[in-house]
Write a sequence for this structure.
């Protein structure tokens, strides 16, 4: 695979790469939404009632909003790329930072919430 | 983590032979983006695992045993999600400038944290008895 002589740079068909990336977006958005649901509704022993329990809808709601943002960032992007791969338009563009940021922020919010729960909520 | 990163037909690297700025092959940019996405899924998995360990596991008779396993995993996951975004940015900038990709400390870091947590878990499992319920 490495010694193809004088192979020209092929950049005209990123079809499968676009599809893999779209699938990766779907998995990632689902992972974040599942974690948001677990924080908001999960039956963790330390979180039944009490002051910490009262903050859960807040954190969970924020995570669901972030999950929706990830979904909204990923799907139009993937659709544009699929169209470009099919030869319509020139929307073969890389993602921009504001499209990736909701996922990173969402994961960090889950992480901080989980750290506080794990460190300070006694079960 | 890297199951979806390799690109078939990516044997020619146009960025490597062109020091001047130019648009890199979009497949490499997509691969960089998928790496970011994969890091974030890994991050969420680490956080979820750490939370389950501290909340759902019956306590060891060694005080703070569950936190010793779970908290490093959660901290690693949180750090990973933020670091992966800046890493995506650095990688894309390097590709656009025809520079070699910058080295990442994330793989070795996550290896060490997971390995140490696993060793602590092993030690606790061997030397500490779980309390009934």
């Amino acid at each position: 695979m490495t010694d193809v002589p004088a192979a020209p740079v092929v950049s005209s068909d990123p079809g499968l790469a676009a599809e893999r990336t779209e699938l990766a977006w779907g998995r990632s958005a689902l992972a974040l939404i599942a974690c948001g649901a677990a924080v908001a509704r999960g039956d963790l022993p330390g979180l039944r009632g009490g002051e910490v329990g009262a903050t859960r809808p807040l954190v969970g709601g924020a995570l669901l909003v972030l999950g929706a943002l990830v979904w909204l960032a990923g799907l139009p992007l993937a659709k544009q790329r699929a169209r470009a791969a099919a030869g319509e338009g020139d929307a073969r563009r890389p993602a921009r930072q504001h499209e990736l940021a909701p996922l990173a922020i969402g994961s960090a919010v889950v992480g901080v919430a989980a750290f506080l729960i794990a460190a300070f909520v006694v079960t | 983590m890297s199951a979806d990163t390799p690109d078939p037909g990516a044997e020619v690297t146009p960025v490597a032979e062109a020091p001047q700025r130019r648009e890199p092959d979009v497949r490499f940019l997509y691969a960089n983006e998928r790496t970011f996405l994969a890091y974030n899924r890994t991050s969420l998995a680490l956080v979820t695992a750490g939370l389950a360990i501290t909340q759902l596991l019956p306590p060891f008779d060694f005080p703070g045993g569950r936190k010793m396993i779970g908290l490093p995993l959660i901290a690693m996951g949180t750090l990973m999600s933020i670091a992966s975004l800046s890493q995506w940015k650095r990688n894309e900038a390097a590709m656009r400038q025809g520079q070699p990709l910058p080295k990442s400390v994330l793989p070795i870091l996550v290896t060490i944290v997971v390995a140490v947590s696993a060793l602590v878990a092993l030690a606790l499992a061997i030397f500490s008895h779980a309390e009934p319920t």
User: Anything to note?
Assistant: Chain B touches chain A through 48 residues (CB under 8 Å). The first helix of chain B runs from residue 26 to 56. Helices of chain B lie at 26-56, 65-96, 106-127. The mean pLDDT of chain B is 85.
